[in-house]
Amino acid sequence: MLIRKTVLIYFSLLVFLFSANAQNEALSKIDIPDLKEYLTFIASDELQGRELGTEVDGLEITANYLADYAKENGLKPAVENYFQTVPILHTTLSTDDFIEVNNKKGKSVYQSKELVKINQTPVVYKLDEEPVTFIGFGENIESLGIKDKLVIVAQGSAESFSGEEAFEWQNRVERAKINAIMEKEPKALLIITNPKDKENKTFKQFQGWMSRQGYSVKADDDVTEQPAVLLSTPNVADALLGKKGQYLKYLEDVAAGSKASTEVSETLSLKTGKEPELLEGKNVIAYVEGSDPVLKNEYIVFMAHYDHLGIGKDGDVYNGADDNGSGTVAIMEVAEAFASLNEKPKRSIVFLWVTCEEKGHFGSSYYCDHPVFPLDKTVASINLDMVGRVYDGSRDDVWKDSPKKVKDFDGLYTLSNDVWPELAEINAAHCAELGLVPDTSLPKERFLRASDHYHFHKNGVPILNYATGYHADYHKVGDEVERINFKKIKRVADLCFLVGLDLANKEDVEF
Ligand SMILES: [Zn+2]
Predict the structure, then answer these.
(1) Can you give the C-alpha Rg of the chain in angstroms?
(2) How far away, in angstroms, is 90 Cα from ligand 1 center?
(3) Pairing verdict, β 262-272 and 98-102
């Protein structure tokens, strides 16, 4: 009995020593010269700030660099060539929008650029010599046959029109009116702003909103060909009705109840919108497969965005060494450490370098909409965003404007959600092991939305987010590799490894 017990203790001790040894060996793979080498490249001017659309495609170069690295270190590709393509639309200003009134003979009698499309689809909308039907304020819609017609409706209501009230756009009223009309399946709807709005305030406001340029993730389905809702000014209506001031007179008649719908012999031609340019972002996804035949189908995801802000108007390169070169290289080293283990942990460990966080979390939101590994089998998603700075007290001129002082060498901002409360405890235990102090003081309602972890949080995945905090160089040209504290990055990467290993081997994970 005694002998058996001794053997058992001796055996467990051996296993413990062996795994402690393997663990230390793996931790030794996370080393400062490597971190420095990788970050010096990623945060170099040559990559032009790792943004879409720069002359040198630094974003693509970084993606290739990460994929090559994953391959060299024996990580498995989670998708072909490690790349998950993120389709991104780049919308630029459309300069050839027009609305035109044609007479009976098809001759253009009025032309203007006063046209906006106020619903989302389709992107480019065109009509050619289309007959029109005026339907007043869109009241008594049941009695009007408007299916497949281009209908023109007035902003506001008969009641508000005869009153002295303001002519401002009442969103609730207009929304209800648009919905009622669209149910009758017109070809398109053209809303004419109130003629009392002499300065065209409403039209200009919409024009400002709808002509926004920028980037967005392309939706999966091409949007259905639903009829357009357009907005123009009384000038067009006057031209259709024959002369200046005619539209106001028409509306007065409608408001007085003496007129409802009117058809005219003039027709409308118009075009609005411009086809956006389709760009490709890339998430880089590699993994270390778990060793347990069942648990390998559960995942721990390490994530960091590798993009930054590109080049400023003055030609300065925003290198984003901390944001988020630091997180990018930290999980490179964590990946190497996991890949180096002879005996792999039970669950699979995923390394997800996401693109275009700075443009609106494009890579992470796309991943969560198209998860390569099921989100309900994702035990935790651990996001690193800015983990390379420490306030050392010697550069007060640089740091004094910081909205939130970077923590000292032992501090680490740590955010978790409430999906699996034990995760925060596991994290705290490993922080203690490394002498790190998790600071959980960041307000969750704000910071859960602040970076890529948000999309996992939204999908009910337990999350952790590490950061060393804001600093005076945040989103400035001064976010350079010279100001990085590599010892701190190593501590964060070590923590990632220990937390990841623990989560990957843990017996019972329930949330
Ligand atoms: Zn960032």
Answers:
(1) 30
(2) 21
(3) antiparallel
Centre of ligand 1 to C-alpha 449, Å, is 12
Residues of the chain with CATH 3.50.30: 98-272
What DSSP designation does 96 have?
Answer: -
Residue 1: pLDDT over 50:
no
What average pLDDT does range 5-25 have in this prediction?
Answer: 67
pLDDT, position 297: 97
pLDDT digits over 180-219, tens only? 999 999 999 999 999 988 889 999 999 988 877 789 999 8
Helix (H) or strand (E) holding 203: helix 201-210
CATH superfamily of 29-90+277-505: Zn peptidases (3.40.630.10)
CA dihedral 221, 225, 231, 232 (to 10 degrees): 130
Question: Which residues of the chain are in CATH 3.40.630.10 domains?
Answer: 29-90+277-505
CA 323 – ligand 1 centroid, Å: 5
Domain 98-272 classified CATH 3.50.30? yes
Distance between Cα 450 and ligand 1 center (Å): 9
Neighbours of ion ligand 1 (CB under 5 A): 323-324, 385
Tokens representing residue 273 in the block: 């919108």
| 392: DSSP letter | -
Q: Are 455 and 301 in contact (CB under 8 A)?
A: no
**pLDDT number for residue 145:** 87
Give me ligand 1 centre to Cα 212, in Å: 24
Answer for the pair 34, 310: CB distance below 8 angstroms, yes or no. Answer: no
Which residues is 221 bridged to in the sheet?
A: none
Measured between alpha carbons, how far apart are the two ends of the chain, in Å?
A: 40
- Residues pairing with 267 in the sheet: 102, 131
Average per-residue pLDDT in the chain? 91
| Ligand 1 mean position, distance from CA 455 (Å) | 15
pLDDT digits (tens, 9 = 90+) for 278-314: 999 999 999 999 999 999 999 999 999 999 999 999 9
CB atoms within 10 A of CB 397: 8
CA of 147 to the centre of ligand 1 (A): 50
* Ligand 1 midpoint to CA 445 (Å): 18
Q: Could you tell me the pLDDT band of residue 259, with boundaries at 50, 70 and 90?
A: confident
Q: Does residue 373 carry a pLDDT above 80?
A: yes
Question: From the CA of 326, how far away is ligand 1's center (Å)?
Answer: 10
How many angstroms is it from 490 CA to the middle of ligand 1?
18
Secondary structure of 69-81 in HEC code, one letter for each residue: HHHHCCCEECCHH
CA of 448 to the centre of ligand 1 (A): 13
